[in-house]
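User: structure tokens for this one?
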Amino acid sequence: MKKLSDNSLDFISEQPREKLIKKGSNALNNSELLAILLRSGTKNESVHQLAKHIMNDCQNSFNKLSNLSTDELINKYKGVGAAKATTIQAVNEIIKRSISENLNTNSQITSCEDAFQYFLPYLKNIEHEEFWILYLNRANKVIATEKISQGGFSGTVTDIRIILRIGLEKRASAFIAAHNHPSGNLKPSTDDIKTTERISQAGNIMNISLLDHLIISGNNYYSFAEHNYI
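Assistant:
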């Protein structure tokens, strides 16, 4: 009888698709879920081994996996081509949008903690800076969420005219700003403080109040309103 290779044994002993059908998706571990997306491995590495390799590199964290760009996935892992890399990216985006939908566009923002929880899916664990605005009506219910700008690791340019134009189009009564610090440092920079002051002043002229500006890093945040900058 022909001896089975280690890869063949791995394939027979663990078949994530069958496991999912029989026991449900909750029964699968992270690498098994990823193996279903990858579908195949390489000559020297089974799909299960490839998935484990990737998840080990990401410390078994889907958040860390979502930080890898399409090019990084393709260049770092043999057996991951454009089709597999874009599938992973698409699933990451589906997860983000699902979380955002669950927050409901009619959510009422009553505190900086509410605003932080709303912004978190957009700004958690990304390695470049992004600047977002949450537009609210008179009852502080969410009208719209808009990404205003995206930059590099150390900063992003914010155009106040775009913020106010969208606010007027949405007939917003107030708005909350947020951006992330990939460095992990929550302390606002001098530019952060000046930008907040300019946005607040411009908003007052247009009768659209800036209620808060959050700096987000990981699962933590800094509130300008709580620190009396607004």
